[in-house]
Amino acid sequence: MPVHRFGWDANAKKWFEWGVALDGEKFVWSQLENSESRFTNSELEAVLPDGYTIETSPSAENWWRSAARMLAHGKLIAIDYGFTAEEQFSPSRLNGTVRAYHRHRVSDDLLANVGEQDLTAHVNFSAVQKAGEAVGLRTESFSSQPQFLTRIVEKVFKNPSAFGEWGAKQTRQFQTLTHPEHLGRAFRVLVQSRF
Fold this sequence. Notes:
With 195 residues, the protein is α+β, with helices and mostly antiparallel strands. Helices cover 29% and strands 32% of the residues. A 4-stranded antiparallel β-sheet has the order 3-2-1-4, with no helix packed on it. Strands 9-5-11-10 form a 4-stranded mixed β-sheet. Strands 7-6-8 form a 3-stranded antiparallel β-sheet, with no helix packed on it. The two termini are 28 Å apart. 18% of the residues are buried.
């Protein structure tokens, strides 16, 4: 889903939105005029470096809210890279979380290889969670992928006959999905429900 990128202007003490412009044959970043950000935190803004970048995804929040409204009974589950609102602001992410992937290699140059690379950004799970709760969903859990999968595996071990055989192959797959150096560290799981 699309994101909006906002940068911090430390001299003017205000946020601005990044847009894309054309400079000859090349795409370049450009500050948009009269953009509005949803960030207000005077303590944080006092220490943010000039140009600090963060993203929002109103489209993701709107999609979740719409899906939640249609859900009469059941669960909505989101599994993706992401953070809470508090975790989004980090000195290690001066350029935000948007990344480009070209031929399975990560790049910070989002405007290179136009049409030939995938762009992705981390989810603000706090915003998505609030969107669901605002229309009546109950948050069952928000956890890391290893925590989420471990709870499932605990059920498998309590009732192995219901899930079939668990052997070395399943153990290796589980370790890949939960090990901090593989897929487990960055993925989060949000489960909300209505019954």
